[in-house]
Amino acid sequence: MMDWEKVFATRASRMKASEIRELLKLLEQPDIISFAGGIPDVNLFPKAEVAEAYAEVLSGAQGDAALQYSVSEGYKPLRDWIVGEMSRIGITCKAENVFITSGSQQLLDYLGKLFLSKNDTALVTWPTYMGALGAFNAYEPNYDKLIPLSNREPQTYIDQASEKGGQVKFAYCVPEFHNPTGVTMTRAEREWLLDLAEKIDIPVIEDAAYQSLRYEGESVPPILALDLARNGNDIEKTRTFYCGTFSKTLAPGLRIGWVVANSDVVRKLVLIKQAADLHSSTINQMVIGKVAERLYDEQIAKIRKTYGHRRKKMLEAMDRHMPAGVDWTRPEGGMFVWVTLPEGMDGASLLAQSLKSERVAFVPGKAFFADGSGANTIRLSFSCATDTMIEDGIARLGRLIAAQKKAAA
Amino acid sequence: MMDWEKVFATRASRMKASEIRELLKLLEQPDIISFAGGIPDVNLFPKAEVAEAYAEVLSGAQGDAALQYSVSEGYKPLRDWIVGEMSRIGITCKAENVFITSGSQQLLDYLGKLFLSKNDTALVTWPTYMGALGAFNAYEPNYDKLIPLSNREPQTYIDQASEKGGQVKFAYCVPEFHNPTGVTMTRAEREWLLDLAEKIDIPVIEDAAYQSLRYEGESVPPILALDLARNGNDIEKTRTFYCGTFSKTLAPGLRIGWVVANSDVVRKLVLIKQAADLHSSTINQMVIGKVAERLYDEQIAKIRKTYGHRRKKMLEAMDRHMPAGVDWTRPEGGMFVWVTLPEGMDGASLLAQSLKSERVAFVPGKAFFADGSGANTIRLSFSCATDTMIEDGIARLGRLIAAQKKAAA
User: Fold this and answer.
1) What is the CATH number of the domain that holds A370?
2) Counting C-beta atoms within 10 Å of the first and last residue's C-beta, which end of chain A has fewer, N or C?
3) Keywords on this record (chains A, B) (predicted)?
4) Residues A393, A261 share a domain
5) Does residue B261 share a domain with residue B123?
6) Would you give the end-to-end CA distance of chain B in angstroms?
7) Scanning every residue of chain A, which has its alpha carbon at the shortest distance from the alpha carbon of B72?
8) Which residues of A touch B45 (CB under 8 A)?
9) Tens digit of pLDDT for each residue in B281-325?
10) Nearest C-alpha of chain B: how many angstroms from A243?
C-alpha cells in the first residue's frame, strides 16, 4: 500500500505534521475519486474459482500437505505450470529455473540481499517502481541512471560506481507498461540493455509485473527471451532474471510470485528464502496453481477488456480536459498514465490542493525517482476507476491544473 | 525443511559426495522410522475447520478484501485476537504492539536485518535453533555463548564483541521446550537474562514457538511478562520481543506468525516488511483469525494430549533401550528429546550407520551449535511418531549405540 505519510513528508519543510494528518484523513473519505493505488480491481478477482480451489485442495489427497511445511523452492506442479506459460512468451526453461516467492516484491528484496553491499550501484530507470527502491534501499546502494537511454560509454557506469566505493551489481527495469510511466521498452532498447549488461558483466532484473496486461499494439519479446536467443536458447548461460507475479492477474492477497533464471542464481535465492521465511504458503501455491491451470487465459482476457476500456476512457478524458503545457504518456497496457505538469508546478502541492477542493487523489511522481527529482510529475492509475470517476476526476484535475497554471503566470 | 545435504557435509572430509547422495536417498525410503523433522503431525491439523473458514471468508463481506493487497502490520482483527490471547499468559499489550509476519522465521530474519551489522555479536544458547542461526548468518554476525549460564561479568560480553569489531546487539533464546534440547528456562534463569540485558542494554528475542505445548509441570511466565512486571506493566518500556507462531498449533502451511513488542520496534519492523514483501497473505490471516477464535483452546488440548502421550512413550523407551553412558533430557513439552552420546561418538556417523542398518533417522546435534561443536549429540523428535515407531525405532537405535560403544571400547 502507498506510504502516504512519506509522500507528503518529502515536502516536510513546507508542510506541517497537522496538515499531513488532515490530508491522510481526506484520503480515506468515501467521496474521494482515487487514481492513486496501483492495485487491481477487486471486482475482477476470480473469487468463486479461488473458493472452489481452496475447498478442493483441502478435501482432496493434497489436504494434509497443503497445511504442512513445504520446500523452499516452491510447489512443483505450480513451477511446472509456469514452465509451460513461459514457453508461450519465448522463454524456454525447466522447473529448476523457476522459484516461487511471496509476491515479486520479495524477490526484489532477495535480489538486493544477494547482490548489493553498501555503496554498490544498482542501475535503475529514472523514474522507477518505488517499491524496488524501497527493497534495494535496505542494502544501502547508490543508483545510477539506466534509462532514459544515453550514449554513455559502458565503462562510465563502472567508473562512477567505483568512485562511490562499490561496483555495479545489476540493472533493474520494468520493460512492459512501466510503473509509473506506463511506457514499454522497444526491442532495440532491450537489446541495448543486454549489450550494456554483457559489456559490464552484470545481471538484468526484468520486473514483468504487468506483462499480461497489453490492450493494444504488438507485444515485444521479454528481455530473457532475447537473452536466450543470444545464448543458443540455453537458460544456464543467461544473465536475465524474469520476475513474474499473480498479483495483477489472479489475486495479490495470496502473495505468490516467481522468478525464472539460470539455476545457479535460483539455488542461491532458494537458500536465502530457506533462511528468511522457509517457504511461501503451501496451500496458496496449490490454489494459485489450480486456478491458473483452469482459467488463466480467460481471466487475462477479462482483465484486458476492462482495464483496456478504462485506459481508453482516461486518455480520451485527458485529451478533453488537460490544459496546454501538460504532457502524458499513452501506454499500450498496464495500469498507469504518467503526467508531466508545467515546469515549476509541484505534484505534492497539487495533490494537497486536489484532495481539499477537487476530492481527487493520485500519486506525486517524486517518490519514483532515486534522487528525489521529478517534482512536476504525477502518476494516474485507471485500474479501479469507473467511466464516471474517470470523466469527473480528470475534468476536475484538469480544471485545477489550469487554474494553478494561470495563477502562476 | 531440514537441509540434509548440509548436515552430512559437516563431515565433508570423511564422507564422499556419492555417499551423501546415497544417504539422502535412504532418507526418502518409506520404511525409515523418522525422529528427524521438527514438524507437527498432519493428522492433528484442523483441516475441516480451515476449509470452512476459507469458504466463509470468500463468500462473506470480506471476500474481496481477502484477495486484495493489505496493510504491512497485519489484519487488525487477528492482531486484536492475539492481544487477548497474550493477556492470558501475563502479557498486556495493544494492537499497535502486535505485528503479523509470514511465520516466526521471517521475524528472525527481520530482527537480524534491523539489528545486526557485519561483525556484531548475537548472544545465543549453546546449542540453539539452527533456523535462527540461518536467519542471522545472512547479516554476518559473531556469536557469543548466552547459556549455559555462567558467572561471566556482563562487561565481558561487551568486551568480547568489541574485540571482534562490533557490538552486542541482542540475546536470542527459546525459553520453552527449547529446540533442540527440549529444556525450559527456569524463572530464575529468565530473570538472570533480563538482568544481563539491562546491564548491557540489549533487547531480548523470546522465541515462543512451543509456548502452548506443555504436557506436564508448572508453566513459567514468558520473559516479556517478567519484563513487563519490571516496568510497571508498560510495554513501551520493555526490551523483550515475544515471537509467536500458529505453525505448531494450527498449521504451518499458512505461514502466519507474530511478534509482540514495544511499538517503536514494531513500527521499524513494519517498514522492513513493507519494503521486503508488502504484507503476509491477506486471506490466510483472516482464516487463521477465524479458526483461532473458534477452536484455539480445543486444538491446543488435542495437540497436548497426543504429543504428551508420544513424549511419555519415547522417554519410557529411552529408559528401556539406551545403554549406560547415554544421557538425555526429559522435556515437559515441545517436540524434542536431546541425547548426549558417549564421548567420542559422532552423531553424523551414527546417523549414516543408523539409516543403513537400522532404518532410523534423527538429526545430528552439530548443526545446532554456532561453533560446530556438539559432535556427540543428536536430536530426536516425537511429534510425528506412533507408539510402534517409537518402541521399534528407539530399540534399534539403542542397540546400534550399544554396539558402537562396545566396538570403540
Assistant:
1) 3.90.1150.10
2) C
3) Aminotransferase, Pyridoxal phosphate, Transferase
4) no
5) yes
6) 36
7) A1
8) 64, 67-68
9) 999 999 999 999 999 999 999 999 999 999 999 999 999 999 999
10) 14
Nearest to B66 among A1, A58, A253 (CB): A253
- pLDDT tens digits, A252-275: 999 999 999 999 999 999 999 999
Q: Considering CB atoms only, which of A40, A54, A282 is closest to B54?
A: A54
Nearest to A255 among B59, B135, B281 (CB): B281
Task: Please answer whether residues A351 and A391 qualify as being in contact, where contact means their C-beta atoms are separated by less than 8 angstroms.
Answer: no
Cβ–Cβ below 8 Å for A58 and B50: yes
Expressed in angstroms, the distance from the first to the final Cα of chain A is: 36
Which chain A residues contact residue B272 at CB under 8 A?
138
Q: What is the pLDDT along chain A (409 residues), one digit of tens a residue?
A: 566 666 665 544 456 777 777 877 888 888 999 999 889 999 999 999 999 999 999 999 999 999 999 999 999 999 999 999 999 999 999 999 999 999 999 999 999 999 999 999 999 999 999 999 999 999 999 999 987 666 789 999 999 999 999 999 999 999 999 999 999 999 999 999 999 999 999 999 999 999 999 999 999 999 999 999 999 999 999 999 999 999 999 999 999 999 999 999 999 999 999 999 999 999 999 999 999 999 999 999 999 999 999 999 999 999 999 999 999 999 999 999 999 999 999 999 999 999 999 999 999 999 899 888 999 999 999 999 999 999 999 999 999 999 999 998 8
Please check whether residues A337 and A378 belong to one and the same domain: yes
* Contact between B69 and A135 using a beta-carbon 8 Å cutoff: no
Range of the structural domain that residue B235 is part of? 48-295
Which residue in A51, A102, A253 is closest to B277 by CB distance? Answer: A102
* Nearest residue to B136 via CA among B179, B105, B180: B105
Q: What angle is formed at CA A334 by the lines to CA A328 and CA A335, rounded to 5 degrees?
A: 65
B67 at A interface, C-beta within 8 A: yes
Give chain B positions within 8 Å (CB) of A132. none
Which of B45, B52, B69, B269 to substitute to test the interface with A, most A CBs within 10 Å? B69
- A 172-231 near B (Cβ less than 8 A): none
Please check whether residues B52 and B37 belong to one and the same domain: no
Together in a domain, B216 and B178: yes
Where does a domain end: A295, A317, A352? A295
Please tell me the distance in Å from A229's CA to the nearest CA on chain B: 32
Between CA B2 and CA A383 the distance in angstroms is: 43
Q: Which helix (H) or strand (E) holds B285?
A: helix B282-321
Q: What is the CATH number of the domain that holds A194?
A: 3.40.640.10
Q: Give the DSSP H/E element, type plus range, for residue A291.
A: helix A282-321
Question: What is the predicted ipTM?
Answer: 0.94
For residues B211 and B175, what is the distance between their CA atoms, to the nearest angstrom?
8
Q: CA dist B367 to B4, B35, B379, Å? A: 10, 16, 10
DSSP-assigned beta bridge partners for residue A363: A379
| C-alpha gyration radius of chain B | 22
B204-207 vs B168-173, strand pairing mode: parallel
In chain B, how many domains are there?
2
